[in-house]
Amino acid sequence: MTTNLKVEWDAPQVELLQICRRVVSSEMSPDAAFALIKNIKKTNTSVSSLLTDVLWLIDMEISMEKKNEDTLKRFNEFLALISNQIVPDDVLKLELDILGANEHATRSRVVKMKTKLYFKQLKFNLLREESEGYAKLITELLDTNNSCVSTTLTKLHRLIGQFNVDPNRVLDIILECFEASPQRRRFFISLLADFKASADDLCNILGFKFTFYQQNGDTPSSLYDIAAILCSERVVD
Hints:
elongated; THOC2_N; Tho2; THO complex subunit 2
């Protein structure tokens, strides 16, 4: 697993997971882990909730991987320390199989939790969230010396992958750049086709733009021009 993968878990939750796994693997004593988590709690009031999810995942890993008695003992010692100090005892008993929770009811959550932790990546939808990625995207699209659609498409795919920019937002920016450079009609029409932009997605984006301008002022003529071009090219109906 690559270390630069962006996951939806918060950084404190990942840190808590690392601490708990070090306890289970005998790299850290339960007492040291408890002290460390208490320090984290001083600056993060949501530690109790975050730690509950982490403990549930550790509990499932121990159960599924059939850890030895020493591992179970260390984990139980750790749970005894945090019980009612970090996480309420009744919550632990409700969530953790090792403390008597309903194994069948909780086991079905393991796939979703591990998918969220390891594989689900963030998509940055706003320019302020990933300014570098969107800046490079706009620069690429507005480069008048760039007339090769296949080369541009390859670069767009690389930017989407490298910066995790949202493909729907990329489509919106393609339309924005098309609106700013209508004289490059052939280029943008071909790019939209190769980008596999669906007519429904394009209609939704255009509809949102028209609605926004109608509610907030005059609709620019350039937007009507782009809509007309897309209709005449039968990109949208």
